[in-house]
Amino acid sequence: MDPTTLEGRSLCTWLDYTAEEIRYFLDVSKQVKAESQRHEVHRRFEGKTLALLFEKRSTRTRCAFETAFGEEGGHPVFLSTADIQLGAKESIEDTARVLGRMFSAIQFRGFKQSTVETLTRYSGVPVYNGLTDDFHPTQVLADIQTLEEQYGPAPGKKLCFVGDGRNNVARSLMVICAKLGLHFTLITPPSLNPDPDLTARCTAVAQVSGAQLRHTPDTAEVEGAHAVYTDVWASMGEEAKKEERIRLLRPYQVNQALMDKTGRKDSIFLHCLPAIKGEEVTAQVIDGPQSRAWDQAENRKHTIKAILLATLGS
Ligand code: CP
Ligand code: NVA
Fold first, then answer.
1. What is the pLDDT at residue 37?
2. What is the pTM of this model?
3. The domain that contains 40 carries what CATH number?
4. For residue 50, how many C-alpha atoms fall within 13 Å in the half-sphere facing its CB?
5. Per the residue annotation, which of 62, 226, 292, 300 is the catalytic one?
6. Across 227-253, average pLDDT
7. Catalytic residue check, 226
8. Same domain flag for 233 and 307
9. Does the structure show a pLDDT above 90 at 210?
């Protein structure tokens, strides 16, 4: 793969990337993690600027972008909707045009996937999706890196997502697993299955990569899983649905009994965080020996640096 083909690209969803390109980001991430462990200092973003637009809260994504970019000499600027006009008094298109004249790249976290796509279309600079209602692509790159640190190459391994099957993280996992040839089982009540359009697109991708994609309400299907993954039952913006979700998803809590159903002593637990202990996962599991949630959080920074390096042409 020619890495220069990544220069100037945006990341709205992994659907826009090939398996080889995703693999390249993972390789760069591994390299920058090793550099960080050796305490090497680089200045690869000197003279560059990054706008960080946030409609929703964030700990990991914001800190990963700010530290990955800033420690290499780049200048990140955090802008919440309390600070700038973003679709309120000024159209997204016009904001994109203006930011594109001042910044080397833009990160957007917010509600609509169409906003990150509009920013991409009108800014003329790389735009990164730091989470929308539909997708969370930078998260799942870190998740694959974490899984590979445990088991080696992802293709042929089994990842189960247990919980709200139509949320941004579950949908993004389905996409990246389909691309990379990782078997993906979504364990969720039928009413929370992702939309059939996305499932059909992922199924077509999986036919090429060899990934097996399954949707099931049966938690016994965690059997053989290398990794069990969950996320909050009500995502940001869905607070009104919380009570209903708790009733619906209680049988899907990831507790030790569910982890034991994998039948593998070495299976790992993954969570994008933030977690609500006692709801989607017990403290015993997330704070226990099978959890890799904290490695995942650290890997957000390395994978985000890899995405910035490859797309900003450093
Ligand atoms: N996992 C994740 O995106 O965390 P934040 O919401 O804290 O950014
Ligand atoms: N599904 C969660 C992910 C948080 C990182 C949310 O959107 O709130």
1. 98
2. 0.98
3. 3.40.50.1370
4. 31
5. 300
6. 98
7. no
8. no
9. yes
